[in-house]
Design goal:
Helix content is 55%, strand content 0%. With 71 residues, it is mainly alpha-helical.
């Protein structure tokens, strides 16, 4: 084998070994504000159905103390 083909073979093997060690991890490119907005939007989406469960009526049962009640 010639020296050039031997070098090519070594480089090819080295390339294969290095390629197996490389792992790419995809990351969403968003800033801290965009991340916070996304989290808050998810929270709104989960809470919104709770407010309309009573078809526009208040779904919380609150009892007032006698001195707080309006006559």
């Amino acid at each position: 084998m010639s020296e050039a083909s031997d070098t090519k073979l070594q480089l090819s093997r080295m390339k294969d070994v290095l390629a197996k060690k490389i792992w790419d991890k995809a990351v969403v490119n968003e800033g801290p504000n965009a991340k916070l907005v996304g989290q808050l939007q998810e929270e709104v989406d989960t809470l919104r159905p709770r407010t309309t469960e009573g078809h526009g009526q208040d779904t919380c049962a609150v009892s007032l103390l006698p001195e707080e009640q309006v006559s």
